[in-house]
Amino acid sequence: MRPVRLRYTTEARQHIAAIHGYISQRNPVAATQVVARIRLAANRLSEFPRMGHAGRVAGTYEWVVRGLPYIIVYETGVTDPDEVLILGVFHGAQDRERE
Q1: What is the value of pTM for the model shown?
Q2: What string of H, E and C letters represents the secondary structure of the chain?
Q3: Per-residue pLDDT tens over the stretch 31-64
Q4: Which residues of 25-53 are buried (b: 16+ CB within 10 A; e: fewer)?
Q5: What confidence tens digit (pLDDT) does each residue in 65-99 have?
Q6: Which residues contact 4 (CB under 8 A, 6 or more apart)?
Q7: How many CA atoms lie within 13 A of 20 on its CB side?
Q8: What angle, rounded to 10 degrees, do the helices at 28-47 and 10-24 form?
Q9: Alpha carbon separation from 54 to 73, 75, 93 (Å, rounded)
Q10: How far apart, in whole angstroms, are the C-alpha atoms of residue 59 and residue 63?
């Protein structure tokens, strides 16, 4: 299987920026490392798009970033069969029902 294209929604990009901003207030180096790990986990989805588990919303998948409390929510093949679309990145303790 060949890798598929990876794309982030504006909302997902905002989530990542907010994660970086929050962590960087305490530790700028750690903030950069956390964002890099989130992006690395998302990049793996381009190689193995169905490795996550079924998401809370029908048609979505969720992939937990190993060693971090973040969950990548994504969908595959909705508008393009060769694309993984990152919908959002959430902290595991976050109340996603209120988002």
Answers
A1: 0.90
A2: CCCCEEEECHHHHHHHHHHHHHHHCCCHHHHHHHHHHHHHHHHHHHHCCCCCEECCCCCCEEEECCCCCEEEEEEECCCCCCEEEEEEEEECCCCHHHC
A3: 999 999 999 999 999 988 888 899 999 999 999 9
A4: eeeeeebeebbeebbebbebbbeebeebe
A5: 999 999 999 999 888 888 999 999 999 877 666 44
A6: 46, 49, 76, 82, 83, 84
A7: 14
A8: 150
A9: 10, 10, 18
A10: 14
- The closest of 68, 77, 11, 79 to 40, measured between CA atoms, is 68
Task: Sheet containing 83-91: give its strands across.
Answer: 5-8, 83-91, 70-76, 61-64, 53-54
Residue type, position 39, single letter: R
